């Protein structure tokens, strides 16, 4: 695979969760060990400490922090598909200097082991990951069309934020145009040009992605998902779901039940 040289204070986000190796040298690396096979001890419900060196290491030592996390993007999951395999912090620190102090704080917490440090580490990791994603969107990485272009447009971004904040609201084109501060015709034309779909289609697709996630991952009943998303009846919701996804929501619910 591709080799990325990491320096002190550097970090990388692998948004697709691909397999990777952290090696001491690209030319003559030490043998890699499976991270899951190393001895670990739980610190808090979501954090374990993995020991890879002797019990009394020298004062000057290398601190590595590794974390796996779920992206809680909800209906914005198409954004992940556009991300590169590896997103490096080293290329962002000049424009986003706030990331580096957070990484330094993580190193201090890992070294000092003070009360509550595991929870602080986990939360700092969440913030750093979010900053990397936001920086990738804002700094011009990736294709500047569709989703990315919409998120970079401050006025259109306000509309997307409003839709994602209240997906179950009975939005009208006029209300969304007011969010953007333009006329209905200008808004509709701009939204279609940037995203490739109409506002109504965008909202419906977003709702169905949310519903599918709720039903499949959280076991939310179909009628509850329909109510959350503003549908007056389960039948109307099921028709919309099938129109967008090609199959009824009951298929997802049945799969979830079988797995449980």
Describe what this molecule looks like in 3D:
The chain is 50% helix and 5% strand. With 260 residues, it is mainly α. It has two domains: 12-138, no CATH class; 147-259, Homeodomain-like (Arc Repressor Mutant, subunit A), CATH 1.10.10.60. Strands 1-4 form a two-stranded antiparallel ribbon. The protein has a two-stranded antiparallel sheet with strand order 2-3. A hairpin with a 2-residue loop joins strand 2 (40-44) and strand 3. The longest helix is centred in the middle third of the chain and has 22 residues, at 117-138.
Question: Which labels suit this protein?
Answer:
single chain; 260 residues; mainly alpha; Arc Repressor Mutant, subunit A; two-stranded antiparallel sheet; 5% strand; globular
